[in-house]
Structure to design on (182 residues):
């Protein structure tokens, strides 16, 4: 994979919070990227430039930080945005998918009319750890008949195996930076 032009710049502004949300977890906090207007623009532009010619129909973002990035990228690409939410947060008819996290399990849902069969979808989240969240979202979109063109995230934590698992499941994956060995 070719490293994105601003990968080091973006990575250097991601805050590491040790032992959150539980002991032993090194949480990679992207909020400094969102708080600085220049960093936020570089971050969004990195994704927009990658996907501007991808002939997408919609951008899907995973609750909650995937909403921030996904909605802005969708807007910049002149596409609609589909939220994939934690269980019980969507008001209309949904389909659900349960998955494992690095520190527990969870369920995500999508509205049954969020996309149409054949829609080409970009799936965005902030980070790939064990891969469970992105794969659950991918499965939901697939069940609705959509084609997920690529999964995308700011951060990859390759030592947790998620990026390999995602690629092994046949979903191409793009990440801006990784924290291998950090």
């Amino acid at each position: 994979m070719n490293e994105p032009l601003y990968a080091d710049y973006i990575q250097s502004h991601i805050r590491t919070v040790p032992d959150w949300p539980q002991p032993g977890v090194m949480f990679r906090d992207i909020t400094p990227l969102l708080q600085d207007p220049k960093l936020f623009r570089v971050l969004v532009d990195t994704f927009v430039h990658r996907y501007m010619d991808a002939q997408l129909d919609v951008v899907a973002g995973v609750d909650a930080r995937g909403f921030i990035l996904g909605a802005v990228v969708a807007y910049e690409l002149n596409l609609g945005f589909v939220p994939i939410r934690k269980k019980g947060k969507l008001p209309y008819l949904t389909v659900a998918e349960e998955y494992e996290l690095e520190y527990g399990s969870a369920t995500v849902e999508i509205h049954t009319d969020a996309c149409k069969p054949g829609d080409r979808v970009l799936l965005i989240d902030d980070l790939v750890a064990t891969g469970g969240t992105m794969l659950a979202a991918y499965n939901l979109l697939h069940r609705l008949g959509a084609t997920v063109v690529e999964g995308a995230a700011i951060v990859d934590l390759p030592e947790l195996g998620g990026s390999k698992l995602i690629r092994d499941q046949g979903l191409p994956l793009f990440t801006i930076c990784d924290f291998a060995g950090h």
User: Anything to note?
Assistant: The beta strands are 15-18, 26-29, 58-62, 80-86, 94-101, 104-111, 120-128, 147-156, 173-178. The longest helix spans residues 37-51. Residues 54-178 form a domain with the Rossmann fold fold (CATH 3.40.50.2020). The chain has a mean pLDDT of 94.
